Amino acid sequence: MANEVFESVRTILAVREYADREIPEDIVRRIVEAGRLTASGSNVQPWHFILVRERAALRKLGGLVRTGPYTATAAAAVIVAYEKEKGEIGLSDASRAIQSMMLSAWGDGIASNWTGFAGRLEAVGKEFGVPDTHEVLAVVPFGYPKQRVIGRKKRKPVSEVASAERFDTPLT
Ligand SMILES: Cc1cc2nc3c(=O)[nH]c(=O)nc-3n(C[C@H](O)[C@H](O)[C@H](O)COP(=O)(O)O)c2cc1C
What we know:
- This protein is 35% helix and 15% strand.
- It is an alpha+beta fold.
- Flavin mononucleotide (FMN) is lined by residues 13-14, 16, 67-68, 113-117, 153.
């Protein structure tokens, strides 16, 4: 039986080249909504999402995240921050929100990727007015893919990463 959620998980790939095409407003808003609706520990929702769409700001982001220069060409990007005082749970919650946004976007034909990581994005926080109470976890560029996304996931076999009942009994 078809399962659209699983299909998204199965097919989504990191995409680093985007078409020069706007994302319709309702789809952009749905991406942010997917983050907002994500579950968090004790429902604290310790995240903050900054939706960036101005070309100059996207270029700035591309310059600030060493591992994500292609954000400069994205149609939009979301800067994801979380409350520092929530520590590891905050990091986990915000990561989950990123996954929600990326999968929801993929369902609408929009590609994306995770760029950067907490502890290395202070310059992004400074530039975009993130207060000291928050840690920037990632910058996530979004856009229609420049070319058809063809690719296969390279993943370890299930027997290497999953067990049945006990760690030492591979799931086959
Ligand atoms: C936590 C995390 C951080 C990542 N950081 C970057 C990054 O800074 N720059 C980048 O180009 N890709 C980044 N990626 C994308 C991964 O490299 C990519 O998802 C992985 O190689 C698997 O490729 P696939 O998603 O196409 O299957 C990151 C992914 C995750 C989950």
